[in-house]
Amino acid sequence: MSILVVGSVALDSVKTPFGKVEDALGGSATYFSISASYFSPVKVVAVVGEDFPDRHVKLLQHHKIDVSGLKKVSGKTFRWKGQYLYDLNQAETLDTQLNVFADFSPEIPQSYRDSNYVFLGNIDPELQREVLKQVKRPKLVACDTMNFWIERKPQELKKTLKLVDILVINEGEARQLAGESNLVKAAKAICSMGPKALVVKRGEYGALFFNCARVFSAPAYPLDTVFDPTGAGDSFGGGFMGYLAKCGTLRDDDFRRAIIFGSVMASFNVEDFSLNRLSKLNWPLIRKRFEQFKKLTHFELLA
Amino acid sequence: MSILVVGSVALDSVKTPFGKVEDALGGSATYFSISASYFSPVKVVAVVGEDFPDRHVKLLQHHKIDVSGLKKVSGKTFRWKGQYLYDLNQAETLDTQLNVFADFSPEIPQSYRDSNYVFLGNIDPELQREVLKQVKRPKLVACDTMNFWIERKPQELKKTLKLVDILVINEGEARQLAGESNLVKAAKAICSMGPKALVVKRGEYGALFFNCARVFSAPAYPLDTVFDPTGAGDSFGGGFMGYLAKCGTLRDDDFRRAIIFGSVMASFNVEDFSLNRLSKLNWPLIRKRFEQFKKLTHFELLA
Fold it and tell me: Are A257 and A128 in contact (CB under 8 A)?
């Protein structure tokens, strides 16, 4: 089943201890889409400027991503400039130029409106609700958010949370949103705001999935080279939603595998700059790393 | 099979956001011993002062811990005073009084010398080697260390590492010891210093087990109340070594379960101050939480 994703498409300039790139393809919707495309058809809604290179659009199309919702408008593409020092968990933003993204108002093409799976990337919670108004009743709505919206638009965010099934959020932001340092209590508090389940992203420490009854814990894949963490969270989201849309059911087992597939995709993404690694995968590679996650976490019960 | 542990026995004064205790039973050997005692017989080597309350010795004996190596000497018992603020991962030391521990020179009683499993708690690496000189060839030697020894006695520590099978260490200290921020590379570097395997303790993020061929990742148990993290690492060590000594073999499966049992014991320990929780467990409770770790991490492979 197909996935509708709304978010940013950006040109990123990133410096890590291992190198740097200038104006490379980035943005939450981009990482999400290419990641999810290995599992399910993806329809993207985003905005770019006139300077957005055609080859990036072609890359999305090469992954069978429907770009009829990718609007090109006059002005410049959203740009983000950041660096990672030796702590690769922590991006330092050097510059943000919203450009055409400042006036982004997502218009959902007719052909997208019956998407069963909707992922609301990290944009203004008011815009996230605008998206939901334009789609028919989806089977599953997940959304991402960040400290910026938690601080600036807490009431709007809470209105949005009432409408989503799953919130996908960083650990620190989950604590901030709940106003609670204990993560288990924070998860309960967030679930009482609307979402039926919560995915907590913990960077190199993996991810936790909370629903009312259960917790599932996934590690990050231990890599000997983490090249560039940019987009890891959105790649995770793409693998997570991609697998759910692929399997079509929402059982406990499905969510567990989805969290692992999210972790698989994030682990590939950080192996190179931009979409360089994520855009060159194939199903056997993905499946092999999924199986490596099994070896990484498996233990036998006592007889 | 029995375990010999050498380490500190202390009186701790601890303050957390949830309360405080004064001169409560603590110390690495104490947490380790009581934790391990649920799995295997334990023989402890440590030193206390004349002020050490008899009831603490009785608590150890109640857990069938052999205290013939627990020396009482003139002077005061080692005291540690610390607090945890809202970040329960980070202890702030307010005061350390080594007292009788300053002149600790471990003497291994004859009846301890054929112990098959030896755990060298976090003491001076020279003393750790003194212990090894006094025991017959054990089946498995594990040791703990900390930033203090990495900074002050790096050469002595490296000599000790050549003699141990498994190093059990905190994540930050693993990075510090290896001089390498990437944990996978750090683990390889440490294994090249001598240990065949490495247990990396990550607090609320669980633990990783590295040996030359494999990595195993265990989460921490998600608790809605972490009361006092003091002793979590040593409780982990006790569950880990305790299970290995109980099962008697050293296969990959055994190490995986041992890491989970370590995580189980650490999760109980943080639920109350001092040894309050750890000293009141029983096998059905331990086994039940072990099974909960399975539910926490289990996912099915694809068909």
Answer: no
Residue appearing with tokens 């202390």: B10
Which residues in chain A touch residue B202, judged by CB atoms under 8 angstroms apart? 205
Q: Which residues of B touch A253 (CB under 8 A)?
A: 299-300
* Structure tokens belonging to residue A19: 């190198």
Tokens (6 digits) for B77: 């018992």
Task: Tell me which of A185, A217, A287, A300 to substitute to probe the interface with B (most B C-beta atoms closer than 10 Å).
Answer: A217
Find residue A80's DSSP bridge partners.
Answer: A12, A96
Q: Which residue in A297, A275, A121, A117 sits closest to A207, CA to CA?
A: A297
Residue A159 is classified by DSSP as H
B181 close to A (CB below 8 A): yes
Q: Residues of A with CB below 8 A from B215's CB?
A: 222, 296
Q: How many CA atoms lie within 13 A of A104 on its CB side?
A: 33
Q: Please classify residue A15 by burial: count the beta carbons closer than 10 Å to its beta carbon, then call 0-12 exposed, 13-18 middle and 19+ buried.
A: middle
Kindly report whether the global pTM for this prediction surpasses the value 0.90: yes
In angstroms, the CA A104 to CA A99 distance is: 10
What 3-state class would DSSP assign to A12?
A: strand
Eight-state DSSP code of residue A95: E
Of B98, B97, B100, B99, the C-alpha closest to B72 is: B100
What length does chain B have?
303
Q: Among B62, B64, B51, which Cα is nearest to B9's?
A: B51
**CA gap B61, B158 in Å, rounded:** 35
Number of DSSP helices (H) and strands (E) in chain A, helices first: 10, 13
8 Å CB contact of B256 and A295? no
A257:B296 CB<8 A: no
pLDDT in tens, chain A (303 residues): 899 999 999 999 999 988 999 999 999 999 999 999 999 999 999 999 999 999 999 999 999 999 999 999 999 999 999 999 877 778 899 999 999 999 999 999 999 999 999 999 999 999 999 999 999 999 999 999 999 999 999 999 999 999 999 999 999 999 999 999 999 999 999 999 999 999 999 999 999 999 977 999 999 999 998 899 999 999 999 999 999 999 999 999 999 999 999 999 999 999 999 999 999 999 999 999 999 999 999 999 998
Q: Which two tokens stand for residue A141?
A: 């709505």
Place of tokens 């029995």: B2
Residue B299: both structure tokens together: 């996912």
Q: What is the DSSP letter of B220?
A: P
A299 and B253 within 8 Å at the Cβ level: the answer is yes
End-to-end Cα distance, chain A: 41
- ipTM of the modeled complex: 0.94
Give, as one character, the DSSP assignment of residue B261.
Answer: H
